[in-house]
Amino acid sequence: MLLGDSWIVRMIPIWVGALTHLAFAWTMFVVEYWGRFVPYEHPDR
Fold first, then answer.
1. How far apart are alpha carbons 23 and 28 in whole angstroms?
2. Residue 20 needs a FRET pair 20 to 30 A away by CA distance; which of 9, 35, 39, 44 works?
3. What DSSP string describes 1-34?
4. CA 30 to chain centre
5. pLDDT tens profile 24-35
6. Are 7 and 1 a contacting pair, CB within 8 Å?
């Protein structure tokens, strides 16, 4: 079932695929701000 066929396209409704894509996109958008690298700046400089 995992190899050689497009079973995921046939068995999962289109709205489930759309919701998972939206959830993934929003997660990447939010996590991008949480994981942003800000280099340390010494207070004396």
1. 9
2. 35
3. --SSS-HHHHHS-HHHHHHHHHHHHHHHHHHHHH
4. 10
5. 999 999 888 888
6. yes
Sign of CA dihedral 34, 37, 40, 45: negative
- Work out the percent of the chain whose per-residue pLDDT is above 90: 38
Which pair of tokens denotes residue 40?
Answer: 């340390």
What tokens appear for 29 in the block? 């958008």
**pLDDT band of 19, cuts 50, 70, 90:** very high
| Amino acid, single-letter form, for residue 9 | V
Rg of the chain (C-alpha set): 20
